[in-house]
Write a structure and sequence with these properties.
Strand content: under 5%
Distance between the termini: 112 Å
Largest sheet: 2 strands, antiparallel
Number of domains: 3
Structural class: mainly alpha
Strand order of the largest sheet: 1-2
Number of helices: 29
Radius of gyration: 33 Å
Length: 676
C-alpha cells in the first residue's frame, strides 16, 4: 500500500517547500484535486485507471502533509497554537473576517481523523466502485467533502466554520444521491438536507447573536471575553449556547433530528464510512468542543445536553436491536455513540468527548467497510435475514467484523472500552440527577449495543445459509484493494485507545493546552471517577455480557423454536423506530402540506393575491374600458351627464381643498350659465 521511494520523494518535497507552507497545502490540496477531477473526468487524456491512481496519490499526499504538520506542531513548535492568514475575506464596519487557519491540538486531532479515514476510504473505493461508470465523480465528491471538513476544523471564526458546515452538508446530499436514478436515494438525500436545515438555521441564529452582542466572531477573542459574555445584558449566554446546541443536534443526529441518518445509508457504503460515521456527523460534537469556553458557563444548557445525549444513546441502541438492514444497524449504532459524546459534553468532559470521537471514527469506519465487503460478496444483498453460515466463506470479513463489534461493545482493552467507560464513570461521579440519569441510560445502551452486535454476527456468519445458491456459489472474500484499509482500521481499533488515553484524558495532562476549556472541577470529577467502588465500574461490563448472552440464546434457540413472536408488540414498537417517522408525517408534514395547499396556495396565492393583483387588475381594466367604450356612443345626453358630474367634482374640489368661498349668487350664476 505504501511505497518507500515515493515517501522519500515526499520528504524531499517537504524539505524544499518548507514546513510552514504545509499548513496551506493541507487545506487546499483536496480542493484542487476535486476541481481537477470534476473538470477532467474521463474526457481528459489520462485513462480512468491512471486518474484514479493519481487521485489516491493526492489523498496520500494530504495525509503525509498532515503527518509533517503534526511533527512540526508538537515537536518543533512544542504544541503552541499556529494561526495562518490566507486572505482578508469580509471587511465591513466592525466585521473583519479573514480566511485563515487555526491549528491547535484539537485541530490536529481532527485532521488526523479526517485524513486517515479519507485516505483509507478512497483506496477502498477504487475496488468497491471499480465497475461504476461515474467513479471519477464519486472520488471528486469525496475530495470536495474532505476539503470542506478540513475548512471546518481549521476555522478560527464562526463564518468560516459555517461555510465548512454548509459545504459538508452539500457534499452529503451529493453523495447520498450519487445513484440519482434510485428514488429512495433521492428521498433520503432530500430528507437529510431538510432536517439539517433546522439545525443550520439555529446555528446561524446563534452566530448572529454572538456578533450582535460581542462584535466579534473570532474563537480566541470570544474565549477571552467569557466573563463579559456571562454578564451580557442583551442576551444570556444560555440562549446562545442553546442555539449552538440545536445546530449540533441537527448535524450529529440527536433525538428529534436523528431521522435523516439511517436513511442516508442509501448512498454507497464508502460514503457511510467517511461521512456518516467518522467525520461529518461528528461536526456537531466538534462545535460543542470548540465552543467549550462558552458551554462551560451555560449552566442551564449543560443538563439539557446530558439528557438529550443519553436519550439519543438509548433510543438508537434500542432501535438497532430489531433492524434487518446491515447498514442501518451500524447507522443507529453511530447515532447511539454520538449520544455518548453529547453526554460527555453535557458533563463538561470535553476531553472525554473528543477521545470517544477519535476512537469511534476508526472502529465505526471498520464496521462500515466490512459491511461493504459483505454486501460486495453477496451481490449487493443487505438484509441480515438473507445471510447466515458465511464464516467459512468469508473468514477475513468475520475477523474484521468481530474486532469492530468488540470495540463497539467496549470489550476490555479495545479502543472503545477506554473512552466509553470513562464517560460512564464521569457521569456517575457528578452526583446530580441528570448525570445519574445519563449513567442509567448509558449502561442500558451498553447492553443493547452488545445485543445487536452479537445478533449481527450470528445472523451473518452462523446458523443456516439463507442466501440463494447462485449467490453462495459466487461468494468471494475481500479483494486485496479492500483488504488493506480494513487491516489498518482494525489495528487502530485495537490499540488507539490504550496508547492515547493518557494524552487525551490523563489527569493533569498538558496535551490540550488552551484548545479546550477544562475547569479544575473536572479534574476533581476525574479523581472521583478513578476511585469509584469496583462494583460500580463493572456494571456496564455486566450489562454488555448480559446483552451478548441474551442475543446468543435468542438467535440460536428461541428463534429456531419460533418463540420470539411472544415479543411481537415490543418488536413492532422498536422496529417502527419509536414511531418518530409516523409522528412527523402525521403531525407535522401532512398538516404542513395541508396548510400549504388550503391556506397558502388556495386561499392566499390563488385567492386573495391573484384576485386583487393579477386577474383582478385585468378584469377591472376590462370592465372600465367597456364602460368608457359605451359612453363614447355619440349621444348628447352622455356628454351632458359627464359635464354635470365633472362640474360637480370641480366645485367640491375647489371648496374643500382650496377653501374657496362661493356665495349663493355666484353659484346660481354658474349653474345658470352652465345650463345655457
Amino acid at each position: 500500500m505504501f511505497c518507500m521511494p515515493w515517501i522519500i520523494r515526499q520528504l524531499i518535497f517537504v524539505l524544499i517547500i518548507g514546513l510552514n507552507n504545509i499548513y496551506y497545502l493541507v487545506i487546499f490540496v483536496p480542493f484542487l484535486a476535486s476541481i481537477l477531477l470534476l473538470l477532467s473526468g474521463n474526457y481528459f487524456f489520462w485513462k480512468s485507471a491512471n486518474l484514479l491512481l493519481f487521485s489516491w496519490q493526492l489523498s496520500l499526499l494530504t495525509f503525509f502533509f498532515t503527518l509533517a504538520l503534526t511533527f512540526d506542531f508538537f515537536i518543533l513548535k512544542n504544541g503552541k497554537t499556529v494561526e495562518i492568514s490566507i486572505l482578508n475575506w469580509i471587511d465591513y464596519g466592525c466585521l473583519n473576517i479573514k480566511l485563515a487557519g487555526l491549528f491547535d491540538t484539537l485541530t490536529i486531532v481532527m485532521l488526523l481523523v479526517i485524513t486517515v479515514v479519507s485516505l483509507l476510504v478512497q483506496y477502498y473505493s477504487k475496488t468497491y466502485m471499480k465497475y461504476d461508470p461515474h467513479i471519477i465523480r464519486f472520488i471528486a465528491f469525496l475530495f470536495l467533502f474532505t476539503f470542506f471538513m478540513i475548512l471546518l476544523v481549521t476555522s478560527n471564526n464562526f463564518i468560516q466554520l459555517f461555510t465548512g458546515w454548509e459545504g459538508v452538508g452539500i457534499c452529503s446530499y451529493l453523495l447520498i444521491n450519487f445513484w440519482y436514478t434510485r428514488i429512495q436515494a433521492n428521498k433520503a438525500a432530500i430528507k437529510a438536507i431538510l432536517v439539517n436545515r433546522v439545525g443550520d438555521t439555529a446555528l446561524a441564529v446563534g452566530i448572529f447573536l454572538v456578533f450582535v452582542n460581542f462584535q466579534t466572531l473570532d474563537f480566541y477573542i470570544l474565549s477571552t471575553l467569557t466573563a463579559d459574555i456571562k454578564e451580557s445584558s442583551l442576551v444570556n449566554i444560555n440562549t446562545i449556547a442553546f442555539f449552538f446546541f440545536l445546530g449540533a443536534m441537527g448535524k450529529s443526529a440527536q433525538i428529534g433530528l436523528h431521522t435523516w441518518l439511517p436513511d442516508a445509508m442509501e448512498g454507497p457504503t464508502p460514503v457511510s464510512a467517511l461521512l456518516h460515521a467518522a467525520t461529518m456527523v461528528t461536526a456537531g460534537v466538534f462545535l460543542l468542543i470548540r465552543c467549550s469556553f462558552l458551554f462551560q458557563e451555560a449552566t442551564y444548557i449543560l443538563p439539557i445536553i446530558t439528557i438529550i445525549g443519553s436519550l439519543t444513546t438509548f433510543l438508537a441502541a434500542s432501535i438497532a436491536i430489531v433492524q434487518n438492514d446491515i447498514k442501518k444497524v451500524i447507522a443507529y449504532s453511530t447515532c447511539s455513540q454520538l449520544g455518548y459524546m453529547f453526554m460527555a459534553c453535557g458533563l463538561q468532559s470535553f476531553n472525554g468527548a473528543i477521545f470517544h470521537l477519535y476512537n469511534h471514527a476508526f472502529f465505526k469506519a471498520l464496521l462500515f467497510l466490512t459491511a461493504g465487503s459483505i454486501i460486495h460478496a453477496l451481490d449487493n444483498e443487505q438484509d441480515l435475514r438473507k445471510m447466515g453460515g458465511l464464516i467459512n466463506l468469508l473468514p477475513f470479513s468475520y475477523c474484521m467484523m468481530l474486532i469492530g463489534s468488540l470495540a463497539l461493545m467496549g470489550f476490555t482493552f479495545l479502543s472503545g472500552y477506554y473512552s466509553k467507560e470513562f464517560i460512564l464513570e464521569i457521569s456517575l461521579s457528578h452526583y446530580t440527577i441528570p448525570s445519574h440519569f445519563a449513567f442509567c441510560l448509558g449502561t442500558l445502551s451498553s447492553g443493547c449495543t452488545a445485543f445487536y452486535s452479537m445478533r449481527s454476527l450470528i445472523l451473518i456468519f452462523f446458523g443456516n445459509v439463507n442466501s440463494y445458491k447462485k449467490i453462495i456459489m459466487s461468494v468471494h472474500d475481500t479483494p486485496l484493494g479492500m483488504l488493506s484499509p480494513m487491516i489498518v482500521l482494525a489495528f487502530l481499533s485495537l490499540f488507539t485507545g490504550f496508547f492515547s488515553k493518557d494524552f487525551f484524558i490523563g489527569l493533569g495532562t498538558p496535551f490540550w493546552s488552551n484548545s479546550i476549556s477544562i475547569y479544575p472541577v473536572q479534574y476533581y470529577n476525574m479523581v472521583n471517577a478513578e476511585f469509584l467502588p469496583f462494583y460500580y465500574k463493572i456494571i456496564p461490563l455486566w450489562f454488555s455480557f448480559t446483552g451478548t448472552t441474551l442475543a446468543f440464546l435468542l438467535f440460536n434457540f428461541l428463534l429456531k423454536n419460533n418463540k420470539i413472536y411472544q415479543f411481537n408488540s415490543y418488536y413492532t414498537f422498536f422496529n417502527k423506530k419509536w414511531f418518530f417517522d409516523l409522528l412527523y408525517n402525521d403531525l407535522i408534514i401532512q398538516r404542513t402540506l395541508s396548510i400549504g395547499y388550503n391556506v397558502t396556495y388556495k386561499l392566499i396565492d390563488r385567492g386573495i393575491l391573484e384576485t386583487i393583483y393579477i386577474t383582478g387588475f385585468s378584469k377591472n381594466y376590462l370592465n372600465l374600458s367597456t364602460l368608457f367604450k359605451q359612453m363614447q356612443a355619440g349621444h348628447p345626453y352622455h356628454y351632458l351627464i359627464l359635464g354635470v358630474i365633472g362640474g360637480f367634482y370641480a366645485i367640491v374640489y375647489l371648496v374643500f381643498f382650496f377653501n374657496i368661498k362661493i356665495n349663493g349668487g355666484i353659484l346660481f350664476l354658474l349653474i345658470y350659465l352652465y345650463h345655457q
